[in-house]
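We modelled the chain as a single entity of 74 amino acids. Its sequence is:
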Amino acid sequence: MHGLVATSRLMTAIREYHFTPDDPERDFGAFDFDGHRVCFKIDYYEPSMQLGAEDPSDASATIRVMTVMLTSDY
């Protein structure tokens, strides 16, 4: 159960992440979580997931994939 609770807390932290006005990207973030530096990255693919999405803002033709990892693994 501990892993499930930690995952829930981590996903909440990502949902509540605030980008600052000087952030050049809106699909990457990094923050401290339970003594670890964590980052997340969102990638945008076309439906077959073979290529990047032509228009990432078109939700009907884009699949979003979020990767979450420790910055030490990056």
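As a brief sanity check on the tokenised model: Residues 2-73 form one domain. The radius of gyration is 14 Å.
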